[in-house]
Amino acid sequence: MDFENTREFARGLDAKDALRSYRDEFIFPKVDGKQVIYFVGNSLGLQPKRTKTYVDEVMNDWANLAVEGHFYAEKPWWDYHERFAAPLSKIVGGLPSEITVMNTLTVNLHLMMVTFYQPTSKRYKIICEEKAFPSDQYMFQSQVKFHGYDPKDAIVEIKRREGEHNIRLEDVLAKIEEVGDELALVLIGGVNYYTGQVFDMKTITAAGHKAGAFVGWDLAHAAGNIKLELHDWGVDFAAWCSYKYMNSGPGNASGCFVHEKHHQNSDLPRFAGWYGHNKVRRFKMEPQFDPVNGADGWQISNLPVLSLAPYLASVEMFSEVGMDKLIEKRNLLTSYLEFILHEVDKEIEGAEFEIITPSNQDERACQLSVFLHGQGRTLFEYLMKNGVITDWREPNVIRLAPAPFYCSFEDMYEFGQVLKKGILVKDKSLV
Ligand SMILES: *Cc1c(COP(=O)(O)O)cnc(C)c1O
Asked: Over the stretch 132-162, which tens digit does the pLDDT of each residue have?
């Protein structure tokens, strides 16, 4: 499509947007009385209006039923998590039995590593991406040390080539082959949090398996953002947080995928707790652990229902719309944002933006990470003061993620206008 950098054109795209009514389903913060342009749905999604109803329902059931709520609440608490299996299985491409919701992301990845990282003196290495999200790096280091290995030896990072921002698939595959029969686990962020690069999970998973390793994915930036086929790709496990693209609220529950092929493999260890125990016998308080047949068998504790309720509200919105429509809008919206950035760069001397996210649509999703060569942190601060919420990453990058659920094409146009002003204003502190 030939884009134009005008308000009229942007409004035209909004008028044709099949998801436009969903914008009103979200609550936008305001700056100087004006609704913000929100680019950080990749960090904390906006609050859907319907979420409050879901939380209130639990609060009311708790008030009116107290302990009886476990079995007699509107949505009984003791198996509240089972409501996620069907809708989430569509969002991430799994079977309902492969999905559970529990804990938080890093905790779930640790639990998955308890199962899928069983190093031996020969096969003990983990392949991950260079500059993985810090929580993942700490997790790898602590897991490796816990098993008595040396992180410097056991953790193998796939590097970017000199002068390149993204990791090449061929380099991932070459590294897997090189580590070969020393490789125990491949665990990578499916969408890189910094650059927005989307990895070819299908190909990498197959390569990891060929080397005899397990393959898992951290889907923090992928769930609710890209098309996933976890079951068909044969992914062993995956986990994601729900508060980024999935709009479930700060620090809320994490989703977890365990492939069917592992559900009944009793050779794989796991950390157990009573909520992973055979559902119908859970309250018999027997000493022998008999896991639920499915991802729910990795559950440990009583469910955090007040954290699950907002996620359920969100998952139901995703089910109404479906990933295909979200992805269609995401691609158009992100391309329009890319166009706007290039326009501003052309118009304004010294803008010098470099989009470090791949330009190829198969390798990117919602996010554009922009290296501000000609600008610094003051431009970011100017944007924030003027109602454009982005985030800053050292050394000089802003990340822009126009979430298709609630961002409009006019937002992208308006952002371009604010951006231009921000670059032209010499002393940004005066504005
Ligand atoms: C956001 C994010 C996390 C956050 O982990 P929590 O345990 O939810 O705090 C982990 N990994 C990646 C790749 C992320 O982007």
From this structure: 999 999 999 999 999 999 999 999 999 999 9
Contacts of 46 (CB under 8 A, 6+ apart): 26, 27, 28, 38, 247, 403, 406
CA 74–ligand 1 middle distance (angstroms): 32
Ligand 1 centroid–CA 32 distance in Å is: 32
User: pTM of the prediction?
Assistant: 0.97
Atom of ligand 1 nearest to the CA of 251: 8
- Give backbone dihedrals phi and psi of 89, rounded to 5 degrees, phi first: -65, -30
Which protein residues are within 6 Å of ligand 1, measured from CB?
104-106, 133, 135-136, 189, 193, 218, 220-221, 241
Q: 104-118: per-residue pLDDT in tens?
A: 999 999 999 999 999
Rounded to the nearest angstrom, the distance between the alpha carbon of 217 and the centre of ligand 1 is: 12
Q: Is 32 left (phi over 0), alpha (psi -120 to 50) or beta?
A: left
Q: How many CA atoms lie within 13 A of 425 on its CB side?
A: 18
- Which residue, judged by its Cα, is nearest atom 1 of ligand 1? 220
**In contact, 249 and 47? CB cutoff 8 Å:** yes
**Which residues fall in the annotated binding site for pyridoxal 5'-phosphate?**
105-106, 133-136, 218, 221, 243, 274, 302
Quick one: average pLDDT of 16-32? 97
Closest C-alpha among 429, 430, 414 to residue 377: 429
What are the pLDDT digits (tens) for 359-393?
999 999 999 999 998 888 999 999 999 999 999 99
Helices (H) and strands (E) in the chain, counts: 14, 17
CATH 3.90.1150.10 maps onto the chain at 7-35+322-430
Q: Closest ligand 1 atom, CA of 135?
A: 10
Cα 139 to ligand 1 centroid, rounded to whole Å: 11
CATH 3.90.1150.10 fits 7-35+322-430, yes or no: yes
Which residues, 6+ apart, have CB-to-CB distance to 33 below 8 Å?
A: none
Residue 331, CA distances (Å) to 326, 336, 366, 409 in order: 9, 9, 7, 12
Given the candidates 3.40.640.10, 3.40.50.300, 3.20.20.190, 3.20.20.140, the CATH classification of the domain at 53-321 is: 3.40.640.10
**CA-244 nearest atom, ligand 1:** 1
Structure tokens at 368: 């554009």
Q: Which atom of ligand 1 is nearest to the CA of 241?
A: 8
383 CA to middle of ligand 1, Å?
25
